[in-house]
């Protein structure tokens, strides 16, 4: 009953280093998402993938890249980490909107806490 | 102005109290409304999911949406210490993107 699994749980980087955050879901969901959560800002969408093979930018995509490796896995890459990217990163997944167009709730992992010095 | 506004609290109540958590939103296209609960150092977990205006009840939890005033509420009856968490409201229109409030931190004192 794993749901959404994120690795690593914690990471400290130096400015300029690169890093890939991993996410995998076992619920057979088509859609996957990456968010960052900062104090007072709530959750902000970085990128999402509506289905395998597609990715789209969210609200705050600058400085990040994503890869939808297969239906289960969606990774987030920081090519050159900056202190402003210190945050808690959450991956989520959902089934796609139903034929009537209604949005579906998202299920979250427990996050990766990333500090950039 | 953020599309979804939420009072960050913190809110502290005695065990057994009725808790009222509220959000306002500005986007008239929003028609799906959700409440998530987030325990410390954990991911958000879906608590309530409603479509359009009206009430939805699930055990001790009631979600209420008033689209005319763009107001979203979550009521918790007979609150328990295990309800202590941060509560996030979220809204979306026809697109799959959710817009979250910043969260309200709730503590229920035994």
Short recap of the structure:
The complex is a heterodimer of chains A (117) and B (110). Chain A is mainly beta and 117 residues long.
Explained architecture:
The complex is a heterodimer of chains A (117) and B (110). Chain A is mainly β. Chain A has no helices and eleven strands. The termini of chain A are far apart. The mean pLDDT of chain A is 91. Chain B is mainly β and 110 residues long. In chain B, a hairpin with a 6-residue loop joins strand 9 and strand 10. At the A-B interface, strand 5, strand 9 and strand 10 of A face strand 4, strand 5 and strand 9 of B.
What is the β-strand count of chain A?
11
The total beta strand count of chain B reads: 11
Helix content class of chain B: under 10%
The biggest chain-chain interface is: A-B, 28 and 27 residues
Q: Please give the radius of gyration of chain B in angstroms.
A: 13 Å
* Unreliable residue stretches of chain A: none
Distance between the termini of chain B: 37 Å
Total number of helices of chain B: 0
Major sheet of chain A, described briefly?
7 strands, mixed
Rounded to the nearest angstrom, the distance between the terminal CA atoms of chain A is: 35 Å
Shape of chain B: globular
Q: From the helix content, strand content and strand pairing of chain B, which structural class follows?
A: mainly beta
Order of helix and strand elements from N to C terminus of chain B? EEEEEEEEEEE
How is the quaternary structure best described?
Answer: heterodimer
Proportion of strand residues of chain A: over 45%
Q: Counting H and I runs of at least 4 residues, what is the number of helices of chain A?
A: 0
Q: In percent, how helical is the residue content of chain A?
A: under 10%
Largest sheet of chain B: 6 strands, mixed
